[in-house]
Amino acid sequence: MGVLNVTPDSFSDGGRFVTRDAALAQARRMVEEGAGIIDVGGESTRPGAAPVSEAQELERVVPVVDAIARELDVIISLDTSTPAVMREGAAAGAGLINDVRSLRRPGALEAAAASGLAVCLMHMNGEPGVMQESPSYPGDDVVADVQRFLRERVDACLAAGITRERLVIDPGFGFGKTLAHNLHLLRELDVLAEFELPLLVGMSRKSMIGHALGRPVDQRLPAGLALHVMALERGAHIIRAHDVRETVDALNMAWAVLNG
Ligand SMILES: Nc1nc2[nH]c(S[C@@H](C(=O)O)c3ccccc3)nc2c(=O)[nH]1
């Protein structure tokens, strides 16, 4: 899953792809590099980021989804929590709703159900603006909290008529977790096999690497590849990354070893 941020303040590419044509060119490049999914996000979840209006998010995301759907043979994922973006994005050709808030905003569950799209449910402790202010868990057991949360969100989706074959789960690395929480979660990632659902993870360029190694965001690729290979070994099916070419090679090499 290649990351395509179409926000002016995206933490890692500083809004290089705000124009539709630039976004399409980047999507084309990621598909050429081996991405099977393009994750289009119009709301920066960077802590302290200015909230984006629904109109702004629609204006950034929908034209890009439409352009990609017209030209490229790739699954388009909507990185959004906004019901209107789910509706408009689905109409424009998206195939997956990737909501970091797991459809908890008013109207989101209904919009996702009505869209017929696949849905990724991701664990988050708190809200993006404050989630990293001393995150904590009952009994410091982040794994149990992730399991509990994902079970609850899966049940909410099933109750809303979203069937299991449309569901993907994700432990949400970096979303309300300390470095220790993130490392423990990766070590124990295989417990999520209990859901028997596709497992998506994303650790690319994340601050967990900064905290572990002191690397700035533009020097986190090697560590990100290590983390994503370990996630593959522990059962991940979809890897969300910015650097598609390098990630595809690392994962294909690891896959050859695991399934040689
Ligand atoms: N499903 C799924 N969707 C995702 N969207 C993101 S945004 C994240 C980033 O670093 O890219 C981020 C977090 C905080 C601030 C800026 C950017 N991360 C994931 C993930 O881990 N899983």
TrEMBL record:
Transferase keyword on record: yes
Signal peptide: none
Catalytic activity: (7,8-dihydropterin-6-yl)methyl diphosphate + 4-aminobenzoate = 7,8-dihydropteroate + diphosphate
Broad class of enzyme this protein falls into: transferase
PROSITE patterns on file: DHPS_2 (PS00793), PTERIN_BINDING (PS50972)
GO biological process terms on file: folic acid biosynthetic process; tetrahydrofolate biosynthetic process
Keyword terms, alphabetized: Folate biosynthesis, Magnesium, Metal-binding, Transferase
Record pathway: Cofactor biosynthesis; tetrahydrofolate biosynthesis; 7,8-dihydrofolate from 2-amino-4-hydroxy-6-hydroxymethyl-7,8-dihydropteridine diphosphate and 4-aminobenzoate: step 1/2
Top-level lineage group: Bacteria
The keyword Ligase is assigned to this record: no
Pfam families the UniProt entry points to: Pterin_bind
Annotated Pterin-binding domain residues: 1-252
Cofactor(s), names only, from the UniProt record: Mg(2+)
GO cellular component, one term: cytosol
Gene3D superfamilies: Dihydropteroate synthase-like
Molecular function per GO: dihydropteroate synthase activity; metal ion binding
Protein EC: 2.5.1.15
Name this polypeptide is given: dihydropteroate synthase
Organism: Isoalcanivorax pacificus W11-5
